[in-house]
Specification:
GO terms for molecular function: hydrolase activity. By secondary structure, the protein is an alpha+beta fold. It folds into two domains: 31 residues; 337 residues, Beta-lactamase, CATH 3.40.710.10. The protein is 33% helix and 17% strand. A five-stranded antiparallel sheet has the order 5-4-17-16-15, with helices on both faces. A four-stranded antiparallel sheet has the order 1-9-10-6, covered by helices on one side. It is globular and about 60 Å long.
């Protein structure tokens, strides 16, 4: 009887919360983010109606040399990947696929949500907008594009502060809290209203703190700068079609009609097409002879910088795994685009979770063997 009564109370509480907040209702229903979330959110399509670019596959490709011990025994690389919840793993060296494997029913045509790898793509688009003269400089204050945020002190926050995660933004990054900011941004439907409500907890330029509010503000800045063109449309024009993406993709939005792209996450694509984003930066913004984004932006985006609170491990929405010139895009469930210029190497890893491994260490170990 007590258990039945408690269950009834819990149901009523959930029902009340759901009515009170669609965001909370969706959080409770879906429970936690998943790589199939492209199915539950509205989105804008990414299409390439032009020629397709395909990486050739090496006939002598082989599994990487990486040592993994389980229960006292060395396991194969494939078992290592599968045991750590991988669904796709791709290694490209000298523009040729050296290794490609899929697990858990996935294959090269399977769509996977990018999660925070989209932050790196958002950064690319900011660079394109600067190249196109739509944004003047990373030193511009946020309020040049979002004047409504001046009342909360954002006239002191620059675009570069957002790119480097040094804005001092007061943002709850927890994905386990249905009332947190991350849940509001991920499950909410009012991003354009929620963004101007954000506040600062410290002066900008003092300290690095990774929070998803920064790239979402960049997304609204980008939308304002584009003056009527969608962020997805700009990605398609500047990157998706020029890179010759093999498959259609999409970018999830907060709502169906006139939605805003969730620029802190949520580009939906296949492993081979994610790899092309890595190749663009590996080639310093040049794609088969055409400069799609300035080389200076690529260098600035991936260099080590510790000035004004910036972390050496992070620059312009790209992670820096070491001080050896490599860099990567990273998503919460273990999505990675790893680029090692010294080895002319790209690795894409997609998974249902990070698993029980250190992927940064694994990537550098793999790179050493190629």
């Amino acid at each position: 009887m007590l258990r039945t009564r408690l269950s009834g109370y819990l149901f009523l509480l959930i029902l009340l919360l759901s009515f009170n907040s669609c965001k909370v209702g969706r959080f409770i229903y879906y429970n936690f983010a998943d790589i199939t979330d492209h199915k539950i959110f509205p989105s804008r399509p990414l299409q390439n109606e032009g020629s397709k670019f395909s990486f050739p596959t090496s006939p002598s490709g082989k599994s990487p040399k990486i040592t993994q011990i389980e229960n006292g025994k060395q396991v194969t690389f494939e078992k290592y990947l599968e045991d750590n919840n991988t669904v796709a793993f791709l290694i490209i060296k000298n523009d040729t696929i050296q290794y490609e494997n899929y697990f858990k029913g996935y294959d090269k045509t399977s769509i996977v949500a990018s999660f925070s790898m989209a932050k790196s793509v958002t950064s690319i688009l900011i660079g394109c907008a600067i190249d196109d003269g739509l944004i003047k400089s990373v030193q511009e204050p946020v309020t040049n594009y979002l004047p409504e945020m001046k009342k909360n002190g954002f006239d002191k926050v620059t675009i570069e502060h957002l790119l480097q995660m040094t804005s001092g933004l007061d943002f709850n990054e927890s994905y386990h809290n249905p009332f947190g900011d991350a849940a509001t941004f991920y499950y909410g439907q009012t991003l354009r209203k929620d963004i101007p409500k954000m506040k600062l907890k410290r002066q900008p330029g003092l300290e690095f703190e990774y929070v998803s509010g920064n790239p979402q503000i960049l997304g609204l800045i980008l939308e304002r700068a584009l003056k009527g063109k969608t962020v997805t449309g700009y990605l398609q024009e500047k990157i998706w079609q020029p890179l010759g993406m093999e498959y259609d993709g999409s970018w999830s939005t907060d709502k169906k009609n006139n939605g805003l792209e969730k620029t802190f996450c949520c580009i939906n694509a296949r492993a081979r097409d994610f790899a092309k984003i890595g190749r663009l930066y590996l080639k310093k913004g040049n794609w088969n002879g055409k400069q799609l984004i300035s080389e200076s932006w690529v260098k600035q985006s991936t260099k080590i910088d510790t000035v004004n609170g910036s972390s050496w491990r992070y620059q312009y929405q790209w992670w820096l795994p070491s001080k050896n010139g490599d860099f990567m895009a990273q998503g919460i469930l273990g999505q990675y685009i790893y680029v090692n210029p010294a080895k002319n190497l790209i690795i894409v890893r997609l998974g249902t979770s990070v698993g029980n491994t250190n992927w940064r260490s694994a990537f550098t170990q793999i790179a050493e063997g190629y």
